[in-house]
Amino acid sequence: MSGPLIRVEDLHKSFGSKIVHNGVTFELEEGQTLTIIGGSGSGKSVLLKQIIGLIRPNSGHIFIDGEDITALDEFELQRVQMKMGYVFQEAALFDSLTVGENVAFGLRTIMEAEKQHALKIARQKLSMVGLQGVENLKPSQLSGGMKKRVGIARAIAMGPEILLYDEPTTGLDPVMSDVVSDLILKLKEESGTTAIAVTHDMKSAYKISDKIAMLFEGKILQIGSPEEIQNSSNAIVRQFIAGSSRGPIPVPRI
Ligand SMILES: Nc1ncnc2c1ncn2[C@@H]1O[C@H](COP(=O)(O)OP(=O)(O)OP(=O)(O)O)[C@@H](O)[C@H]1O
Ligand SMILES: [Mg+2]
Fold this sequence. Notes:
By secondary structure, the protein is α/β, with parallel strands linked by helices. The protein has helices spanning 44-51, 74-81, 99-109, 115-128, 144-156, 174-191, 202-208, 226-230, 235-242, and strands at 6-15, 18-28, 33-37, 59-64, 67-68, 84-87, 162-166, 194-198, 211-216, 219-224. The protein has 2 domains: 1-83 and 161-248, Rossmann fold; 95-159. 36% of the residues lie in helices and 24% in strands. β1 and β2 form a beta hairpin. Residues 44-45, 89, 166 line the site of magnesium ion (MG).
């Protein structure tokens, strides 16, 4: 394939009068990891959900492997969705299923894999994320860090070309956050997966990303390598990455 694996072109999305995306454009080469940063409510999760086709844009295009998914019907969309794994912001595991059944879920329902075979693959994927012997536990018996890793195991269960991570390290202690960042890097190196991650965790963003894009007021304010973002001359980007309440970014008055 030539050209970018993912290309988002002039994306517009509103909910009622609330404009979330007002012309978002970027592209990502195969095998690269892009991290989207931006304030709470800036539209990071909505962007990921449009890329995987869970939310439809009002206008604009999303090309995956050269195919515009905004033009596809639900049935055709499913074929493209099978190339993608999605790690939800809230792990979104089924409480009534065991960890193993959660990871095996897509294999069973979408790929129609035989139960024992699907559970065997689930155990392999759990072991890839450093979790052994937990397949018979229920999600409620796991810590937050374990749930995040189960979410990643489920997302990689069907061997996706593209992984979308929504805040994979949020809520984790600094060491566990670094473990998850290393895991994201390992999956990229071992499987050549192309990834888009959303995070506020700048340490993780610098570690896992080939490119970082900042979403602000409905548009990509700046996109560049981690070094370019760290040395940005844009006052908004500088304030955001420094985590300061002082600067041009509007903050609530307390
Ligand atoms: N299904 C929906 N219906 C209506 N409004 C929505 C819906 N989903 C998201 N929004 C709105 O879109 C905006 C962007 O939401 P989004 O979840 O993408 O933010 P975010 O950047 O991921 O924030 P956070 O960092 O807090 O997760 C918010 O104002 C939110 O209220
Ligand atoms: Mg979000």
